[in-house]
Amino acid sequence: MSREEEQKHLLKTSNLIAKDFGEIGEELEVQYDLQQWLSKRINYMLRFEFDQLMNALYRIDVDEQKVKEAIASDAPADELAKLVLERQWQKVIMWGKYES
Asked: In terms of residue numbers, what domain contains 58?
């Protein structure tokens, strides 16, 4: 995948994530930045908005067993961020195949 394609996918993934987790408010240039932002947001939601987080994970269609494992891990926010990012990235890739 070229750098340009990766940037397009990152932007589309960021837009999908913003629908469920709020406006990102900054332009992120690499996937790592998005994952860090998302991890902080999920950490907040784990503490104060647990029901909204669970609803978002359900809407995004993150595997329930993986969610349970992530929540039980030493770094639940980081693990959940990885799962969300992976799932949304998959959607963007799949949609891209059918755009052409």
From this structure: 3-99
